[in-house]
Structures are given as C-alpha cells and as structure tokens.
Amino acid sequence: MKAKYFIFVIVGCLGTLFTSCSESWPYSEEEYKKVRLWGDPSYIALDEDEFTGEFYVHSSDSWDIYDYPSWINLSKYYGYGFGYVNFTVDENYSSSTRYGYVKIRTNEGFRKEAEVQIAQPPTVQFEASMNITNYSASGDWWYLEVKAGSSQSWTISKSNSWVHLGSSYSSSYTYSGKGNESVKIYVDANSSFYSRSSKLTVKCGTKTKSITITQDGNPDKAPFVINSVEVGNIATDGSIINDFGSKIYSYQTKYLKPKLYIKVNTPGTYTLYVKLYDASGKLRTGANSPSGYSYSTTGTLYSNTTWWKLNGWGNDRAGYWGAGQYRWEFWYSGEKIGEKSFTIY
Predict the structure, then answer these.
(1) Average pLDDT, the chain
(2) For the residues 31-38, what does the mean pLDDT come to?
(3) Would you place residue 13 in the very low, low, confident or very high pLDDT band (cuts 50, 70, 90)?
(4) pTM to 2 decimals?
(5) In CATH, what number is assigned to the domain containing residue 255?
(6) Are 12 and 92 in the same domain?
(7) Which domain does 288 fall in, by range?
C-alpha cells in the first residue's frame, strides 16, 4: 500500500493580511516567517515490502528539499505553494531498520525547517523452489531450497498428512527456519492407483510462495497391470508382416499394433486410451482421435486373461512409417499405466 502523508510548511504572510493572521496565530511576525510543519505525522513508516510513498507540502511561498539520503529517490526537489512529492526507496539489505530525513526549507533560508523522517525495515530477501516436484509412487524425498536474509525467519506449511517436512517421521504441519536452508520434503508410498498432489506454502514476512508437488499413482493397484508390451507390423487383413517382438523394417510397414501382456486384478470391461509418438516425437492423431490421444479401445478382461491385442494404427501403403524411435503410451482413467519404446529399422 502506498504511503501518503500531508506535510504543511507555512512561510510568510502578506502585509495586507498580517493583522488578521496575528490575531489568530500565537507567534510573533519573526516566528511566523519561519518554516513550520503542520499535520501529523512527520514520520513515515514503510512496510518491509513497500518501496513507494508520497507526502504533501503546503506552503505559502517557494520551498526546496535540500537534504536527503541517497537511498531515497524524490520526484521533485522544489516547488511553490502546495505540491505532492512522491518518493521511492532502494531495497534495504541490512539487518535493521534504517531512517532517513528529508529536509524542506523556504528559499529565503529562515531558521526553522520542515523535516520528514522515513523509516524503512529490512527488505525481505526471499526465494523458495524445488528442482523436482514429482514423486514416484514408492515414496521418496526431494529438497525444497529456501533462500532468505540471515536474520529473516520463514515457515513452510503443508496441506496433506502423507507429506512430511524435514524428516520422514515428522507429523507436524509446519517447519520453521531462518536464512538459507535446504529442507527435505518426504512423501509416503502411494497405496492408490490414482496420482495425488499437495500444496506447500512458504511464508517469509509478507511474502508467500506456493509450490505444488505431485506423486504418481501405484500401477499395481490398477484393475489390470501391464507387465510388458510387444509391437507387430500388420496388414489390413490382419496377416502378420513382422511378428510381435521381432524387428520391424520401414519399407514393409503398414499398421503398427501393440500387444499387451497383462495381469488382471479386477475382471471387467475397460476402455484404454493410447498415445503413439512417431520418430519426430509428434503425437499421431486423426479426425476421430479423443482429445490428447491417438485412439481408444475397449475390451472385456477376465481373471485368466494374460494378453490384450489393441487396434493397429497406420496405412495399407507399404513403407508408411519411417525409420526411427517410436513410443506407445497406455492410459486408463487419466493415469498412465504403461509405455513401450521401439525402433523401426
């Protein structure tokens, strides 16, 4: 919030008006000609993240600002009558509050001068970051790096019980420190098929940084588990050109077809979404592709089902796929449950 104050500087009084002035003003003519400060306060206290402000000079004569510290930057240095003076302050990297005086006088140089004191606390020097924010389903830890001034305290808070701050055994929802520190952020193993996320909030003074961490779901908790994948090159009529798991040559390619070797945990009918990335790294899609995927396929799986052949993707023209590295990804209920990289020669 911008600091705003009114500074009244009174100088002089016209001769024709002096009689009325003297009747209501309890000072002699000489005293009245001195620069006086009206209003409260003449003291401006900034917040630790506040770097701008203003004060209002009220004078009946010309005035100038003749002295101020170098860390205070003024929008004007002189004026006549009424006028706002805006100011900014440089960051304060010391460990204590500093005080600066802005001194105002009339151009006639009378003894009394107006003075504004500006108090600036240490600037919050604060950063919080994590190089890695995604955790594996098995549980792990990564560092949260906090950087702050040596005298500045900070606090990390969490939003979920499966996250631990500073120690894998800590159940506290907060962790406090001062200055620079690398804090270990632990997560428990994820016993669910679904991925999850949690928010960390780091607060230092008036500054706050939020970091979201994520953890993969446990694929072993899926209704079916993909143990391995083999890819075949198939013709339109379903005949095999290059068998599943054998080398695939570019000049022979037509339809690429994945075969999943699976373990069924819960029998049922399931829809699997598939992504195919070609040798350029591009996700292959068509007019009927689901958003973000190449295609989807639905199948009924039984407790004794051990493999699942999905639909193929390609063209009946031989040589449709160029040489290079390709990748399948297999997604169920918004979670990636398997992938397969393979080479076309």
Answers:
(1) 86
(2) 44
(3) very low
(4) 0.58
(5) 2.60.40.10
(6) yes
(7) 222-344
